[in-house]
Amino acid sequence: MSRVLVPCHVKGSVALQVGDVRTSQGRPGVLVIDVTFPSVAPFELQEITFKNYYTAFLSIRVRQYTSAHTPAKWVTCLRDYCLMPDPHSEEGAQEYVSLFKHQMLCDMARISELRLILRQPSPLWLSFTVEELQIYQQGPKSPSVTFPKWLSHPVPCEQPALLREQGLPDPSRVSSEVQQMWALTEMIRASHTSARIGRFDVDGCYDLNLLSYT
Prior knowledge:
It is built from 1 helix and 13 strands. The chain has one helix spanning about 170-190, and strands at about 5, 10, 15, 30-35, 45-55, 55-65, 75-80, 95-100, 110-120, 130-140, 200, 205-210, 210-214.
């Protein structure tokens, strides 16, 4: 499926002090990063990619446009997504991450703003953020390709012109030819003589119905 990069403006992170441990240096355990799309109309979000930097948990809220008479509302679409499984190791600390719309908890249509909530409850990692953030929307759909129904009988408008000259099978004969192949297979299985067709015999001769060569 094609995707298109959405131009965005990533604001600087804002430190919060809610719900996480503060270190001896006063570093916060929660950061908020707001993302706006000043040059894009509300769109359907397809994918979010970024490089993690020591963030343990990620939540995402989106602001969805409804109508001109109704204020846009904030909705939580991802809650406490784990980026570092073990707070005592660096597993996942600096990996690239892709999040798709089917992983979200809500509909990702008509997005006008996005908010990332980063948490690092462990005092082992004093600095954390996300880098190289990119937002994608769904690109134009590829034109569907229609294939002739060879095992059925398509109407005349579905049959390509000059069918035989193109080297394509005749749909009116495919079914009968398949039946003939099946019947021939059963005959070969039932006939010991016919089973030798196409095989070398004991004398090194190639037996093909009464024709042979040495």
